[in-house]
Amino acid sequence: MTSASRSTPTIKADTAAREAVAAQSAGRAGGYCWVEEKGGGYSCTLRPAHGGKHYHFYSGTEFD
Ligand SMILES: [Zn+2]
User: Fold this and answer.
1) Would the pLDDT of 4 be above 60?
2) Domain interval for residue 36
3) pTM (2 decimals)?
4) Domain-located, residue 9
5) 4 C-alpha to center of ligand 1: Å?
6) Which of 7, 49, 50, 54 could pair with 44 as two cysteines, CB 3.0-4.6 Å apart?
7) What is the count of structural domains for the chain?
8) Is the pLDDT of residue 3 over 60?
9) How far is the CA of 56 from the centre of ligand 1 (A)?
């Protein structure tokens, strides 16, 4: 579940950031709201511009 590259030094941070951006773009392109939960662990899998709380389908997690 968690990123395997989290404890690697700074040179990897840029790569991780790029991957996060790429993943977010992919989620949005896939027709998801894709707002990230504040802990960063989940992205909303509801449709864009839905009402109410965000929701991560795969873990069943609701978040604001
Ligand atoms: Zn959402």
Assistant:
1) no
2) 32-64
3) 0.58
4) no
5) 26
6) 54
7) 1
8) no
9) 8
Which residue type occupies 26? A
Asked whether residue 55 is domain-assigned, the answer is yes
Distance from residue 13's CA to the centre of ligand 1 (Å): 26
Say which residues have a Cβ less than 8 Å from residue 43's Cβ, sequence separation at least 6: 23, 24, 27, 32, 34, 35, 36, 37, 56
pLDDT confidence of residue 7 = 62
- C-alpha closest to that of 2 among 36, 41, 60, 44: 41
52 alpha carbon – ligand 1 mean position (Å)? 8
Instruction: Confirm whether 13 is domain-assigned.
Output: no
Nearest 5°: CA angle at 59, between 45 and 34?
A: 20
HEC secondary structure over 1-41? CCCCCCCCCHHHHHHHHHHHHHHHHHHHHCCCCCCECCCCC
